[in-house]
Amino acid sequence: MAIKTIKRAKKRECEECVKIGSGWVHLRTCQTCGVTLCCDSSPNRHASKHARAAGHPVVVSAEPGEQWLYCFVDDAFTEY
Ligand SMILES: [Zn+2]
Ligand SMILES: [Zn+2]
Fold it and tell me: What number is the average pLDDT over the span 16-22?
């Protein structure tokens, strides 16, 4: 994992859930393309679907006060 600059959520919402009128639990921001999507505790799990579909393995938590990265490929959390 070579992350130098953390991409932050532009908006505090899941782009995909907003489109379909659904809700989410927590938000994650993709470190490859910067999209913000919902976590695996959410009904639609958009962040992990995006990671697999797009091949973008690393997200950060978009929750206030949380400072960690997660890699779907390695199943590894890293604090920063
Ligand atoms: Zn979502
Ligand atoms: Zn992405």
Answer: 98
